[in-house]
């Protein structure tokens, strides 16, 4: 049993903390929102009055927060109150620069740290089947791995500080582009009089095969578990896809990489979001593309 502090008990952090409790760890949590604190309490998390109170005496401190500014702010607040040698883990999806800044805050107090963003969505968080992409020193990763295993099924060490975030935004840039590609193919098929099922049956076993098609098919029917069959309820909201595409484009700019399709995907999701669709699952982009058709 490890004593763990968990800050940020939202859609992802709440079920992740609950899985740590189920694995037999002693979890103390904090969130700004009362409803999240109440759910965490019902899941067996001891709720603290502040983030600083939550980390006192903890051997491991985990954050699952919206963006880089929240992570840097919470880490700045809690690190001075952390126990000697406490392991800092951030599981949020944030920009590489903020991730490296957070590692620097931990290092200044001689605390080991890991950036460990996740893939797998709220279903993966609930089912403890997340994939973790970790960045940080090998020794910090070795300490984090058994803790992360209680919340996920695949834990990958991607490299030094920030490498987990780099892997996450590169993966999600592929995802955003591929979802638009698959959706465009379905919209074209409709215009050509080809049924959704016929396109699916061919492409899912041909060179067009990809996760956006076979696991998360953007039209209802071929994959019954995809959000298209559930009125495009997220799942993974379009606003979060837009956030990750923006992170990829900021990183590309800073690193001098050319990612023209990533940039175009960002602008398509930006229009979708401005159209009031940010809360819709990101596979709902197919309806946006259909509307563009004459
Ligand atoms: P969420 O908004 O549901 O949860 C974030 C929580 O952080 C909220 O409950 C909020 O109250 C809390 N919070 C914010 N500032 C805080 C502070 N100073 N102290 C304590 N609590 C604070 O978001 P989420 O869907 O759980 O996503 C969390 C992170 O995981 C994001 O970075 C997101 O990009 C990433 N992510 C989300 C998904 C998904 O499908 N939802 C998938 C992969 C990664």
Kindly describe this structure.
The chain is of the alpha/beta class. Helices cover 51% and strands 13% of the residues. It has helices at residues 13-22, 34-42, 51-55, 68-78, 96-108, 121-127, 138-148, 163-191, 196-203, 211-214, 238-255, 260-277, 285-292, and strands spanning 3-7, 26-30, 46-47, 60-63, 87-90, 113-115, 118-119, 130-135, 152-159. The protein has a 6-stranded parallel beta sheet, sandwiched between helices. The structure holds nicotinamide-adenine-dinucleotide (NAD). Residues 7-13, 30-33, 36, 51, 64-66, 70, 74, 92-93, 118, 121-122, 236, 240, 243 line the site of nicotinamide-adenine-dinucleotide. Nicotinamide-adenine-dinucleotide binds next to helix 4, helix 6 and helix 11.
Task: Kindly state the percentage of residues in helix.
Answer: 40-55%
Q: Shape, please?
A: elongated
What proportion strand? 5-15%
The major sheet is characterized as: 6 strands, parallel
Radius of gyration: 20 Å
One letter per element, helices H and strands E, the order comes to EHEHEHEHEHEEHEHEHHHHHH
Whole-Å distance between the termini? 61 Å
Spatially, the strands of the biggest sheet line up as 3-2-1-4-5-6
Count of runs of 4 or more consecutive helical residues: 13
Provide the low-confidence segments as ranges. Answer: none
Q: Please identify the structural class as seen in this structure.
A: alpha/beta
Bound molecules: nicotinamide-adenine-dinucleotide
Mean pLDDT figure:
97
Number of strands: 9
